[in-house]
Automatic annotation (TrEMBL):
<dbReference type="InterPro" id="IPR036280">
    <property type="entry name" value="Multihaem_cyt_sf"/>
</dbReference>
<feature type="signal peptide">
    <location>
        <begin position="1"/>
        <end position="23"/>
    </location>
</feature>
<keyword id="KW-0732">Signal</keyword>
<protein>
    <recommendedName>
        <fullName>Repeat protein (TIGR03806 family)</fullName>
    </recommendedName>
</protein>
Length: 358
């Protein structure tokens, strides 16, 4: 075999290419393509942030946009949700305690998309809105984005709005006029002592496995691994459960449900802190805090206790959760329909109580 001598400049060039290739494989550090200028956000359109790859409506997160879920979710007229979190480089959230939101660094964006499947007449998925909470230097701000009919873009609006939705769920056709909340309603729920705060991303709600694109992992561990959560997370987190899991004790299901659906108002320094109940998971292991044998401030229709053991017809809590009357229903905001499956669970819980009111 004849060996052909290559010119020295070609050999040098090939050597450089080889060295560059090795260096890029070993030393390459991926960066998030998210576009974020804290002095300019909120942007006018959702696409400007570059949170998602490909078609916007597919909600495929770009690098650095981490999906997450909650053990039990807030009911919003049966809307489904997809949640994500993004943070700038070289910062991470801190653990406070099991029942408080993670202490997120400045620049964090929490992304929550509200959508319905099987929307009629085309039987497709329709995203209604995307809500952002952005942690700016002055504190958390709200930025809501309303999706267009073509599902190609969502536009910034703090005015809210109404839109009709018809969809099929479990073989049944449902119709609502969905309310996209104005900024003032966001603040009503997301506040502690008049300071805007996230509700869902607490260790007690995040302590679960999630099917990430690279495999199933505990969400808190995944955030730590990615650098979005500092160390120091305890191994014995007092964790909520999925209230829909009927293999779990009925009391634990009830406590998890009211924590995520009611505690953001019925807690100290929250919107309804004057009412004689405390629904937060770290407090509601006490029957009194759940309203058992507690007289309501306003009595009507024979509803003599917030919760009357064994008697839903005398239980204010059951009435508030099952009614669709705007002036009576609870939660105050976010629903027009009764959460039928939860109402069944609440009835089971009330009928399981054996406390005798005195």
């Amino acid at each position: 075999m004849m060996l052909v001598k290559q010119p020295s400049f070609i050999i040098s060039l090939l050597f450089c290419f080889a060295m560059f290739s090795c260096a890029s494989d070993d030393d390459y550090i991926p960066t998030s393509p998210v576009v974020f200028d804290i002095t300019e956000v909120p942007y006018q359109t959702l696409s400007e942030y570059n949170f998602f790859d490909g078609e916007l409506k597919e909600l495929n997160p770009t690098y650095g946009v981490i999906p997450y879920d909650l053990n039990s979710a807030l009911f919003t007229d049966y809307a489904k949700k997809k949640r994500f979190v993004w943070m700038p480089d070289n910062v991470s959230a801190q653990y406070v305690n099991d029942y408080s939101s993670l202490d997120f660094p400045i620049g964090t964006v929490l992304i929550k998309n509200f959508y319905y499947n099987n929307v009629q007449p085309s039987n497709t998925t329709r995203i209604i809105e995307t809500r952002l909470m952005i942690n700016k230097t002055e504190g958390w701000i709200f930025a809501n984005y309303i999706w267009n009919e073509d599902q190609t873009e969502a536009t910034f609006s703090l005015e809210g709005g109404l839109t009709d939705v018809e969809w099929i769920q479990n073989g049944e056709t449902k119709n609502i006029t969905y309310k996209i909340p104005p900024e003032s309603e966001c603040f009503t729920c997301h506040k502690i002592a008049a300071v805007p705060m996230p509700i869902g991303p607490k260790p007690q709600n995040l302590n679960k496995d999630y099917a990430f694109s690279d495999g199933v992992a505990n969400q808190l561990h995944k955030l730590q691994e990615f650098g979005y959560l500092d160390g120091g997370i305890p191994n014995d987190i007092n964790t909520t459960i999925n209230w829909e899991d009927d293999s779990q004790p009925i009391n634990l299901r009830m406590r998890s449900y009211v924590d995520v659906n009611c505690a953001h108002c019925h807690s100290e320094y929250a919107h309804c802190d004057y009412r004689p109940v405390r629904f937060a998971f770290n407090e509601n292991d006490d029957e009194i805090n759940l309203g058992v044998c507690v007289e309501p401030e306003e009595q009507f229709g024979g509803l003599t206790y917030i919760v009357s053991p064994g008697n839903i017809d005398r239980s204010m809590l059951y009435f508030r959760l099952s009614t669709t009357l705007a002036q009576r229903r609870m939660p105050l905001l976010g629903r027009t329909l009764a959460h039928e499956e939860a109402v069944v669970m609440v009835e089971e819980w009330i009928n399981s109580l054996t406390t005798i009111c005195r």
